Recover the amino acids of this structure.
């Protein structure tokens, strides 16, 4: 009497690829610096009156 037992081993390989989405948000804040230079020009007028007698 010959008893043959064939044990069938099933190997199941499950590959899970997790896709990671990296979102990079770059916010550039533009700062505008306005420099106003006011040059006040002062004009000095000197009037010399020579009275000749």
């Amino acid at each position: 009497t010959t008893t043959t037992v064939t044990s069938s081993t099933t190997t199941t390989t499950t590959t899970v690829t997790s896709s990671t989405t990296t979102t990079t948000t770059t916010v550039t804040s533009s700062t505008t610096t306005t420099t106003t230079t006011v040059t006040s020009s002062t004009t000095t007028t000197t009037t010399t009156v020579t009275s000749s007698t």
